[in-house]
Fold each of these.
Amino acid sequence: MKTLETDRLILRAFTMEDLNDFYEYCKDPDTGIHAGWKPHESIDESRMILESFIKEDECWAICDKKSGKVIGSLGLHEDKKRGRSMDECRMMGYVLSKIYWGNGFMTEAVKEVIRYAFEEMGLQLLAINHFSYNQRSNRVIEKAGFTYEGTLRQCFVRYDGALLDDACYSMTREEYLQNKR
């Protein structure tokens, strides 16, 4: 996984040395719920998930440049809703520690990963989704320039049994290049 850099962030591969930072934000009950996953109940649970992140090599650790602290993650995954090759299409997903919300960090990270996806990976399409109630994520997606496609109603059953709508967006390579000009 290539290391990426923005004005305030470094996006890099996770390592096991990130475990304490990872657990710190993953155990917060108001962080992962908006991505559909339950708060981590133990550092051992975080260790198992972090090991899978390292093995799959699809998620960057989002690090604050000033402190070096891991404050979230951002991944490019198989888009199972489209069923296209990962060489041409990916689905972006992210999470950010609650204490860093509202400072533009995620928009900054997303824009850099969009650039990387189209300019260096050569993707043809990037997709991204958020639960319809999640207006913070909606704003990040809009600021990054994605196009709203529609909402899949009642398509996700969260760990707590909540049945949620998924607002779907995408960006094509052509749209990216046009927006860049």
Note: The beta strands are 4-5, 9-13, 59-64, 70-77, 89-96, 125-131, 147-157, 163-172.
Amino acid sequence: MTPASHLAKMTRRLLLTNDDGIDAPGLAALERACADLADEIIIVAPRDPASQIGHRVTTDEPIGLTKYEANHRYAVHGTPADCVRVALKALFADSPPDFVVSGINYGGNLGRHDFYISGTVAAAREAAFHGIPAFAISNYHRRELPFCWDTAADRARFALRHLLENEKLNDGELWNINLPHVAADAREPELRHCELERAPLEVAFQREENDDNGPRFHYTGSYPNRGHNGISDVAICFGGDVSVTRVPL
């Protein structure tokens, strides 16, 4: 799924971000994936992991910033959505990116439920709010299989290049992309357009009694056992293909 290296670069300036933090291996994999897609890559990502916080933004206190020695690499002391806001309205207001890509998240962001919980998706959604074409990329993780970030980078590159070459987002839309996690000897995944799964996640808790402070509840839901309608992004990704969903705001 790796494209020919001689193909023309698709965009002038690309902003990368995530929700797993500036040092996450998924962000490094995304940077490798995008190396031949843009003339200039900017990285503005959370200083610390900020998963599953949805579209939280910081407005009641200052937002810190750490600039790295590497050119155009910044850690925001805030949320994924904060990263995009700071990049678009403070750091690069005079020369905004042509595209924003958020990821590669370690774990799927599938269905409507994940779409609103995910910090990865929130960063892409924030870009779309400001009229910047955006992609959220996640990689479903199966615990029983070894995980390879180089494979994730290759599949992300293939998906991004295909969409940039062949499809155009309308104003107020973003792409939600989920890479499958398959065995090394499995067939090569295909890109398949699909809708977000409407069924909710399985939500289950185990109750633990605590006489002093009342009961506590431990989440026991099983992501791999979530339901789907057979044609949604959950079904496609769980079935071993790359799910691609065009999502309006």
Note: The chain has one domain: 11-194+230-248.
Amino acid sequence: MAKMTLEELRNLRDTKKNDLRKRDAEGKEIQVIVGMGTCGIAAGAKVTLDAFINALDANKLVDSVLVRQTGCMGLCHSEPTVEVIVPGMPAVIYGKVDGAVAEEIVKKHIIGKALLDNHILDRPAKDIVNA
């Protein structure tokens, strides 16, 4: 095994600290839950999960948004599926979420507080949303 320099060790430590910070649930009210059942993974849910993490990093939202994985949501025909929970908004399940849609969800739903109607599977009742 090759020896690491002190600088390489420090960089590795910082990377691992950042990775652990992303997993910390404390103080995070916004949640992104990616369906990672077999059907989801086969449809590209790993790419979707990575896209969310990268988009949250790019928008400096790692400390306020928790990204979690779950099993099958029962919506296999629309995989990859993602549930987004934002305080003050209804919980929504989006379907057919690829990398581009994940970035759009971060920008429009999480930051802009607006629903993406063209990808909603579990639409909130009309009396909950003022559309």
Note: The chain has four helices and five strands.
